[in-house]
Amino acid sequence: MSGPVIGIDLGTTNSCVATLEGGDPIVIANAEGARTTPSVVAFSKDGERLVGVTAKRQAVTNSERTILSVKREMGTNWSKNVDSDDYTPQEISAFILQKLKADAEAYLGHEVKQAVITCPAYFSDAQRKATQDAGRIAGLDVLRIINEPTAAALAYGVDKDDDQTILVYDLGGGTFDVSVLEIYQVDDQPQIEVKATSGDNRLGGDDFDEAILDHIVAEFKKSTGIDLAKDLQAISRVREAAEKAKIELSSAEQTDINLPFITADK
Questions:
Q1: Does domain 5-148 sit in CATH 3.30.420.40?
Q2: CA nearest neighbour of 5 among 26, 35, 36, 34
Q3: 91, 103, 148, 206: which one is catalytic?
Protein backbone atom coordinates (compact mmCIF):
# COMPACT_ATOMS: atom_id res chain seq x y z
CA MET A 1 0.00 0.00 0.00
CA SER A 2 1.58 3.26 -1.07
CA GLY A 3 0.80 6.80 0.01
CA PRO A 4 -1.43 8.00 2.85
CA VAL A 5 -4.86 6.51 3.54
CA ILE A 6 -7.62 8.76 4.82
CA GLY A 7 -10.62 7.74 6.88
CA ILE A 8 -13.90 9.45 6.02
CA ASP A 9 -17.10 9.69 8.03
CA LEU A 10 -19.58 10.53 5.27
CA GLY A 11 -22.46 11.82 7.37
CA THR A 12 -26.00 12.91 6.59
CA THR A 13 -25.54 16.46 7.86
CA ASN A 14 -21.79 16.70 8.46
CA SER A 15 -18.73 14.81 7.25
CA CYS A 16 -15.22 14.44 8.64
CA VAL A 17 -11.83 13.26 7.38
CA ALA A 18 -8.91 11.91 9.39
CA THR A 19 -5.55 10.21 8.91
CA LEU A 20 -2.86 8.54 11.00
CA GLU A 21 0.24 10.44 12.02
CA GLY A 22 2.82 8.48 13.96
CA GLY A 23 0.19 5.88 14.73
CA ASP A 24 -2.25 8.42 16.17
CA PRO A 25 -5.50 9.46 14.47
CA ILE A 26 -5.65 13.13 13.49
CA VAL A 27 -8.85 14.85 12.36
CA ILE A 28 -7.97 17.10 9.43
CA ALA A 29 -9.45 20.61 9.50
CA ASN A 30 -11.03 21.80 6.27
CA ALA A 31 -10.07 24.90 4.28
CA GLU A 32 -12.41 26.95 6.49
CA GLY A 33 -10.63 25.76 9.65
CA ALA A 34 -13.42 23.50 10.95
CA ARG A 35 -13.08 19.83 11.88
CA THR A 36 -16.36 18.90 10.22
CA THR A 37 -17.76 19.86 6.82
CA PRO A 38 -21.51 20.27 6.22
CA SER A 39 -22.73 17.56 3.82
CA VAL A 40 -24.36 20.17 1.62
CA VAL A 41 -23.97 20.74 -2.13
CA ALA A 42 -25.40 23.72 -3.99
CA PHE A 43 -25.33 25.23 -7.46
CA SER A 44 -25.29 29.01 -7.62
CA LYS A 45 -27.42 30.88 -10.14
CA ASP A 46 -24.38 31.24 -12.44
CA GLY A 47 -23.68 27.49 -12.28
CA GLU A 48 -20.84 27.47 -9.73
CA ARG A 49 -20.78 24.36 -7.55
CA LEU A 50 -20.52 24.99 -3.80
CA VAL A 51 -19.74 22.35 -1.18
CA GLY A 52 -19.72 22.50 2.61
CA VAL A 53 -20.21 25.63 4.67
CA THR A 54 -20.38 27.91 1.60
CA ALA A 55 -23.26 25.80 0.27
CA LYS A 56 -25.02 25.78 3.64
CA ARG A 57 -24.75 29.57 4.07
CA GLN A 58 -26.68 30.28 0.88
CA ALA A 59 -29.32 27.56 1.40
CA VAL A 60 -31.90 30.12 2.61
CA THR A 61 -31.71 32.27 -0.53
CA ASN A 62 -31.13 29.38 -2.97
CA SER A 63 -33.09 26.49 -1.47
CA GLU A 64 -34.25 24.98 -4.78
CA ARG A 65 -30.64 24.53 -5.95
CA THR A 66 -29.27 23.29 -2.62
CA ILE A 67 -29.08 19.57 -1.76
CA LEU A 68 -29.09 18.50 1.89
CA SER A 69 -29.07 15.07 3.59
CA VAL A 70 -28.40 13.15 0.36
CA LYS A 71 -27.12 10.19 2.40
CA ARG A 72 -30.75 9.28 3.05
CA GLU A 73 -31.17 8.65 -0.69
CA MET A 74 -28.11 6.42 -1.18
CA GLY A 75 -28.99 3.21 -3.01
CA THR A 76 -32.27 4.62 -4.37
CA ASN A 77 -33.38 5.97 -7.77
CA TRP A 78 -33.56 9.53 -6.41
CA SER A 79 -32.09 12.26 -8.60
CA LYS A 80 -31.93 16.04 -8.60
CA ASN A 81 -32.26 18.05 -11.78
CA VAL A 82 -30.22 21.27 -11.92
CA ASP A 83 -29.80 23.21 -15.17
CA SER A 84 -30.96 20.21 -17.25
CA ASP A 85 -28.44 17.87 -15.58
CA ASP A 86 -29.62 14.98 -13.41
CA TYR A 87 -27.47 14.24 -10.35
CA THR A 88 -27.61 10.90 -8.52
CA PRO A 89 -26.97 10.50 -4.76
CA GLN A 90 -23.58 8.98 -5.64
CA GLU A 91 -22.58 12.04 -7.65
CA ILE A 92 -23.71 14.51 -4.96
CA SER A 93 -21.87 12.46 -2.32
CA ALA A 94 -18.81 12.41 -4.59
CA PHE A 95 -18.74 16.23 -4.57
CA ILE A 96 -18.58 16.11 -0.75
CA LEU A 97 -15.85 13.45 -0.85
CA GLN A 98 -13.84 15.51 -3.38
CA LYS A 99 -13.93 18.45 -0.96
CA LEU A 100 -12.72 16.24 1.92
CA LYS A 101 -10.03 14.73 -0.33
CA ALA A 102 -8.81 18.20 -1.37
CA ASP A 103 -8.70 19.38 2.26
CA ALA A 104 -6.70 16.27 3.22
CA GLU A 105 -4.27 16.83 0.34
CA ALA A 106 -3.77 20.47 1.36
CA TYR A 107 -2.97 19.34 4.91
CA LEU A 108 -0.70 16.42 3.94
CA GLY A 109 1.02 18.20 1.07
CA HIS A 110 0.57 15.44 -1.49
CA GLU A 111 -2.07 13.53 -3.43
CA VAL A 112 -4.40 11.15 -1.63
CA LYS A 113 -5.71 8.16 -3.59
CA GLN A 114 -6.93 5.70 -0.95
CA ALA A 115 -9.67 5.92 1.64
CA VAL A 116 -11.76 3.98 4.12
CA ILE A 117 -15.36 5.22 4.36
CA THR A 118 -17.89 4.50 7.09
CA CYS A 119 -21.60 3.76 6.69
CA PRO A 120 -24.48 2.85 9.03
CA ALA A 121 -24.45 -0.77 10.18
CA TYR A 122 -27.85 -1.51 8.65
CA PHE A 123 -27.00 -0.13 5.19
CA SER A 124 -28.08 -2.57 2.48
CA ASP A 125 -25.74 -3.91 -0.20
CA ALA A 126 -27.16 -1.31 -2.63
CA GLN A 127 -26.43 1.52 -0.19
CA ARG A 128 -22.90 0.24 0.46
CA LYS A 129 -22.25 -0.07 -3.26
CA ALA A 130 -23.55 3.49 -3.77
CA THR A 131 -21.11 4.70 -1.09
CA GLN A 132 -18.26 2.84 -2.81
CA ASP A 133 -19.29 4.31 -6.17
CA ALA A 134 -19.30 7.82 -4.69
CA GLY A 135 -15.69 7.29 -3.59
CA ARG A 136 -14.70 6.05 -7.03
CA ILE A 137 -16.36 9.05 -8.73
CA ALA A 138 -14.43 11.31 -6.32
CA GLY A 139 -11.17 9.74 -7.50
CA LEU A 140 -10.59 7.53 -4.47
CA ASP A 141 -9.71 3.87 -4.24
CA VAL A 142 -12.08 2.81 -1.45
CA LEU A 143 -10.18 0.12 0.39
CA ARG A 144 -13.05 -0.71 2.68
CA ILE A 145 -16.53 0.31 3.76
CA ILE A 146 -16.64 0.02 7.57
CA ASN A 147 -19.77 0.06 9.73
CA GLU A 148 -19.92 3.24 11.80
CA PRO A 149 -20.44 1.43 15.14
CA THR A 150 -17.53 -0.89 14.30
CA ALA A 151 -15.33 2.15 13.68
CA ALA A 152 -16.46 3.63 17.01
CA ALA A 153 -15.76 0.32 18.78
CA LEU A 154 -12.30 0.16 17.20
CA ALA A 155 -11.52 3.66 18.46
CA TYR A 156 -12.83 2.75 21.90
CA GLY A 157 -11.25 -0.71 22.23
CA VAL A 158 -7.98 -0.40 20.36
CA ASP A 159 -5.99 0.21 23.57
CA LYS A 160 -8.01 -2.08 25.84
CA ASP A 161 -6.67 -5.54 26.78
CA ASP A 162 -9.82 -7.00 28.32
CA ASP A 163 -12.43 -8.86 26.32
CA GLN A 164 -15.72 -7.03 26.53
CA THR A 165 -19.19 -6.59 25.11
CA ILE A 166 -20.21 -3.02 24.32
CA LEU A 167 -23.24 -1.23 22.96
CA VAL A 168 -22.70 1.58 20.45
CA TYR A 169 -25.56 4.06 20.14
CA ASP A 170 -25.19 6.37 17.14
CA LEU A 171 -27.77 9.12 16.71
CA GLY A 172 -26.65 11.25 13.78
CA GLY A 173 -28.10 14.01 11.67
CA GLY A 174 -30.21 11.74 9.53
CA THR A 175 -29.63 8.18 10.66
CA PHE A 176 -29.83 6.28 13.92
CA ASP A 177 -28.38 2.89 14.74
CA VAL A 178 -27.52 0.78 17.73
CA SER A 179 -25.15 -2.19 17.73
CA VAL A 180 -23.96 -4.74 20.25
CA LEU A 181 -20.34 -5.72 19.62
CA GLU A 182 -17.81 -8.03 21.19
CA ILE A 183 -14.18 -6.90 21.41
CA TYR A 184 -11.54 -9.54 22.04
CA GLN A 185 -7.83 -9.99 21.44
CA VAL A 186 -6.26 -12.38 18.94
CA ASP A 187 -2.45 -12.32 18.83
CA ASP A 188 -2.52 -8.96 20.64
CA GLN A 189 -4.72 -7.45 17.93
CA PRO A 190 -8.25 -6.22 18.76
CA GLN A 191 -10.96 -8.15 16.92
CA ILE A 192 -14.53 -6.91 16.70
CA GLU A 193 -17.59 -9.04 16.11
CA VAL A 194 -21.03 -7.51 15.58
CA LYS A 195 -23.57 -9.55 17.55
CA ALA A 196 -26.70 -7.55 16.74
CA THR A 197 -27.63 -4.32 15.03
CA SER A 198 -30.73 -2.28 14.32
CA GLY A 199 -31.49 1.18 13.07
CA ASP A 200 -33.59 3.66 11.17
CA ASN A 201 -32.17 5.63 8.25
CA ARG A 202 -35.02 8.12 8.52
CA LEU A 203 -34.45 9.17 12.11
CA GLY A 204 -31.94 11.76 13.27
CA GLY A 205 -31.27 15.39 14.07
CA ASP A 206 -32.91 16.45 10.80
CA ASP A 207 -36.20 15.05 12.13
CA PHE A 208 -35.82 17.02 15.37
CA ASP A 209 -35.36 20.14 13.22
CA GLU A 210 -38.48 19.23 11.22
CA ALA A 211 -40.56 18.76 14.39
CA ILE A 212 -39.49 22.19 15.67
CA LEU A 213 -40.15 23.71 12.23
CA ASP A 214 -43.66 22.18 12.11
CA HIS A 215 -44.38 23.61 15.58
CA ILE A 216 -43.22 27.11 14.57
CA VAL A 217 -45.24 27.05 11.33
CA ALA A 218 -48.37 25.84 13.15
CA GLU A 219 -48.06 28.46 15.92
CA PHE A 220 -47.39 31.26 13.42
CA LYS A 221 -50.42 30.25 11.35
CA LYS A 222 -52.58 30.11 14.49
CA SER A 223 -51.61 33.65 15.52
CA THR A 224 -51.42 35.36 12.10
CA GLY A 225 -53.39 33.18 9.67
CA ILE A 226 -50.34 33.07 7.38
CA ASP A 227 -49.00 29.69 6.24
CA LEU A 228 -45.19 29.95 6.06
CA ALA A 229 -45.02 26.49 4.44
CA LYS A 230 -46.08 28.09 1.16
CA ASP A 231 -43.08 30.45 1.13
CA LEU A 232 -39.85 28.62 0.20
CA GLN A 233 -37.51 31.35 1.40
CA ALA A 234 -39.40 31.79 4.66
CA ILE A 235 -39.40 28.06 5.36
CA SER A 236 -35.65 27.90 4.72
CA ARG A 237 -35.11 30.63 7.32
CA VAL A 238 -37.35 28.80 9.78
CA ARG A 239 -35.47 25.52 9.20
CA GLU A 240 -32.14 27.24 9.89
CA ALA A 241 -33.58 28.79 13.08
CA ALA A 242 -35.04 25.43 14.14
CA GLU A 243 -31.61 23.79 13.90
CA LYS A 244 -30.03 26.57 16.00
CA ALA A 245 -32.82 26.25 18.58
CA LYS A 246 -32.31 22.46 18.77
CA ILE A 247 -28.58 22.95 19.41
CA GLU A 248 -29.28 25.57 22.10
CA LEU A 249 -31.83 23.27 23.77
CA SER A 250 -29.11 20.66 24.23
CA SER A 251 -27.68 22.82 27.01
CA ALA A 252 -30.59 25.10 27.98
CA GLU A 253 -34.14 24.55 29.23
CA GLN A 254 -35.64 27.00 26.74
CA THR A 255 -34.71 29.22 23.82
CA ASP A 256 -36.24 32.08 21.81
CA ILE A 257 -36.63 32.14 18.06
CA ASN A 258 -36.65 35.59 16.49
CA LEU A 259 -37.19 35.95 12.74
CA PRO A 260 -38.02 39.55 11.83
CA PHE A 261 -39.70 40.24 8.47
CA ILE A 262 -40.29 36.50 7.96
CA THR A 263 -43.01 37.23 5.44
CA ALA A 264 -43.94 40.11 3.16
CA ASP A 265 -47.62 39.65 4.06
CA LYS A 266 -49.10 41.98 6.66
A1: yes
A2: 26
A3: 148
Q: Are 193 and 181 in contact (CB under 8 A)?
A: yes
H/E element holding 109? none
Is-catalytic flag, 170? yes
Q: In CATH, what number does 205-249 get?
A: 3.90.640.10
**Is position 71 annotated as part of the catalytic site?**
yes
Q: What is the pLDDT of residues 133-172, one digit of tens each?
A: 999 999 999 999 999 988 888 888 766 778 889 999 999 9
Intervals of the chain under pLDDT 50 = 266
**In CATH, what number does 162-200 get?**
3.30.420.40
Asked if the domains 5-148 and 162-200 are classified in one and the same CATH topology, the answer is: yes
Whether the full predicted model's pTM is greater than 0.70, yes or no, is yes
Choose the catalytic residue: 91, 103, 170, 209. 170
Neighbours of 204 (CB within 10 A): 22
Asked about 148 being catalytic, the answer comes back as yes
| 161 catalytic residue (yes or no) | no
List the chain domain ranges.
5-148, 162-200, 205-249
